[in-house]
Amino acid sequence: MLRRLPVALLVLFACHTTARPPDGPPARRIVSLLPSFTEILFAIGAGDRVVGRTQWCDYPPAAVQVPSVGEALPPNIEAVAAKKPDLVVLYNAGPNVTAAKQLERIGIRTVLIDMNRLEDVAPAARTLGRLTGFEPQADSLAHAMDRILDEPRPTPTTTLAFVVWDNPPIVIGRGSYLDELATHAGASNVFHDVSAPSAQVSLETIVARDPAWIAVLSDSGTPPAFAKRREWRAVRAVREGHFLLLRGSLFGRPSPRSGEAIRQFRALLAR
Amino acid sequence: MKWTLLIVLSVAALIASVMLGPAAVPLADLLHSDIVWDLRMPRALLAFLVGGSLGVAGAGLQALVRNPLADPFLLGLSGGAGLGAVLAIALHLPGPWALPLAAFAGALAALALVYRLGLIGGAALDPRILLLGGVAVGAFAAAITTAIVSLADAAELRNAFLWLWGGLSGASWDAVLLIAVYAPIPLLVLLAAARPLDLLALGEEPASYLGADVEAVKRRVYLAASLLTAAAVAVSGVIGFVGLVVPHIARLTWGHRHRALLPAAFLGGGALLAIADTLARMVVAPRELPVGVVTALIGVPVFAFLLRRWTIA
Amino acid sequence: MLQLDDVTFRYPRASRNALSGVSLDVGHGQFHAVLGPNGSGKTTLVRVALGAVAPLVGRADVDGRAAVSWSKQELARRIGVVPQREDNLFPQRVRETVLLGRYPHLSLWGRERSEDRDAVDRALAACDVAHLADRWVWTLSGGEYQRVRVARALAQAPQLLVLDEPSMSLDLRHAMELFELVRGLVAQQGLGVLMITHDLNLAARFADAVLLLENGRAIAAGAPVDVLTQETVAAVFSWPVAIQMIEGRPQMLPLRKPKESRP
User: Fold this and answer.
1) Percent of chain C scored above 90 by pLDDT?
2) Whole-structure pTM value
3) What is the percentage of chain C residues whose pLDDT exceeds 70?
4) Which structural domain range is residue A61 located in?
5) What is the number of structural domains in chain A?
6) What is the mean pLDDT for each group of 10 consecutive residues in chain A (271 residues)?
7) Lower CB density within 10 Å: C or N end of chain C?
8) Residue range C84-109: average pLDDT?
């Protein structure tokens, strides 16, 4: 009985990770409530079926032409419904589960999909392919993502720490997509031992672990504000100006462009 | 004898803060280490100064509002500071000092508002009105803060709340210098009010018949304690329980005479926060707990214990 | 010491005067009692006399200077006040609470001196509470606590004592002891005393002079036997009394109303 428990839990878990996509005709009016899903939909050729996106969906350029329905977590139900969609794609997280139920209650088909790590892109593509009828394109995208995942991890040639906030210092751990990116790009996250996606750490820990690079998500191209702070200059990488400035749109989320992100990341590290 | 112990404890707390940390610094390298000089020393000193300020402010305020359960953050200052901090982040104000300055300004605004409320109808800083006004202003500020957070980019502002929970991770020699220059004045004002505060404990009328200029004393104590608290919030967020519990612990040994109580509260508060910060850095290393959580975890059992003694007495 | 000359006072936004044309003169070695029904202005009189509020008309002086012109600290060095109520927030020992009476004499940063400790000891002895010096205040009986408060006022080394209804919640023995104490201080130390009290009989027994107020006016002032006559008392307090003399002092015996007018 006790031995069956882990299996049962695993099955339960698997059932909850992605809701079974409902059957029915291919979706023709889609509201996408996550930038990653918007990118996937356009990548598999379903772009002109997207009738609503979040304000954060900025790729591809054609997506920006699609009207925005505002925030994503949680979404504005009325704004979404006003687009008269036949499918709404939501990121699988607490507030969205409630929103999905509300949409279902007013007769709108929804699907909740995980999108936390690199390995979530392929299954998401396949699901969206099935729902839109673009299975062949979706499958080829999924294969491309699988190939990236199957590539042997390069031996790390350098170290980094991802800093998402400075006061208090918050870094990325191995639970995060950014850590995966770094691994594929050949850099070792000095906080890989932290299992959570992000965690508050002492500044002196960052100094002691002495990463060669400090990576930040930044669209400005200039070093972050904390670089000038006296206490941060105890970090060697900050003193030497070794910043990896990563554009949020490309590097900040798992997407069909993850392969490109990894390539650019490698190039940045090689400088 | 008890003073000797307290001083020894304070020094020990400071030394421990400098020697101990998640980054293993061998004893031999202690004096040459960047980590020690650039990070641990300013952090330990800042913890001591902030903890001491909160301890003294708490003692003064408890006497002023005639309520032993008063905490420096009861007067709406934390709400104001939080609003200031969130606005600074939401508006993307530039510069490394934007957040502390905005928090300080927010705290001052709350201070002015509560002070003004305390004067309504000639109330002349009636303690009950100060307390109620503080709660009201704090709640109001918190409501606006929540509204801003819900409307703006969630991730950054979530991190603002982590800052608000209290942390000395922003400690630098600049911050230490700032507090070291700023704090002595309100601290001296409070110390000078030590005897009038003893008298105030009898009630305002008896205090004035024993020579206290009650209105002036209330004003000075309120402003000095609030300014100390505002500065503490600006550099280290809201660190609760220090201002509430330390005066009570000090009273157990030093009694109620403020001439002894205030300095004891300073040293006690400083030692407590230095120790709490060391624990915050070490207990879940490499991760760090917000120090406000540690002071609450230490403070609540101590407080419950004190409450039992109080009700039994 | 205290001189009130034809004082008139009205509280802000009040419809009538709290005091109208009241005069009072309290000097050394004199025990003055202020009597009157509720709301007759007794507490207001003390407030004006001590400079807490300024009179609208007339003068209220302490040692020849207007009471309001004195600083609180200067006044506290001359006048010891035992107000009706005090609300001690934190637990204290008797010696500590009496020491508070020395505060008007202490400099801002200076420590307590031996003369301060001696003054406390003398005050404790004079009020016969020296044996309670190390007790916690909350363990005292009402009578003991009241004497401790008088000791605190004495520790101020005042020339004048002002007491506001000091015997209010004391039993017979403790009330007598308190009045004897005050009388003794007047006799031995030459203190002036101004006391507000509801206890007509004890005031009549112990006071040198009595001021009777009604609706803010002085009805009569002078020796108890002259002021507290049967007609005056019955009129001011709206109740019939009979007067009996004891040791040359009038004692009031309230009479029951005739059967027909009883409810």
Assistant:
1) 77
2) 0.85
3) 99
4) 6-149
5) 2
6) 50 48 79 94 93 91 91 85 93 89 92 94 94 94 93 92 90 93 94 92 92 92 88 92 92 93 92 78
7) C
8) 89
Write out chain B residues lying below 8 Å of A209, CB-based: 23, 286
Q: Report the distance separating Cα A48 and Cα A45, nearest Å.
A: 8
Q: The domain B32-238 belongs to what CATH superfamily?
A: ABC transporter involved in vitamin B12 uptake, BtuC (1.10.3470.10)
Nearest to C100 among B66, B199, B208 (CB): B199
C167 to A24, C84, C143, C187, C192: CA distances (angstroms): 93, 9, 8, 20, 18
Contacts of B156 in chain A (CB under 8 A): 165
H helices present in C207-241, as ranges = 224-227, 230-237
The structural domains of chain B, with segments of one domain joined by +, span 32-238
Q: pLDDT digits over C124-179, tens only?
A: 999 999 999 999 998 998 889 999 999 999 999 999 999 999 988 888 888 999 99
B212 vs C contacts (CB less than 8 Å)? 72, 103
Chain C residues with beta carbon closer than 8 angstroms to that of B211:
72-73, 75-77, 103-104
- Assess whether A139 and A180 both reside in one domain: no
Q: Where are the alpha helices (DSSP H) in chain C?
A: 42-49, 72-78, 94-99, 114-126, 142-155, 172-189, 200-206, 224-227, 230-237
Among C103, C137, C134, C108, smallest CA distance to C119 is for C103
| CA of B212 vs chain C CAs: smallest distance (Å) | 6
What single string gives the DSSP state of each residue in A2-56? TTHHHHHHHHHHHHHHSPPPPPSSPPSSEEE-SHHHHHHHHHTT-GGGEEEB-TT
| Disruptive mutation site among C100, C154, C160, C194 for chain B (greatest number of B CBs within 10 Å) | C100
Contact C103 B210 (CB under 8 A): yes
Contact A29, A86 (CB under 8 A): yes
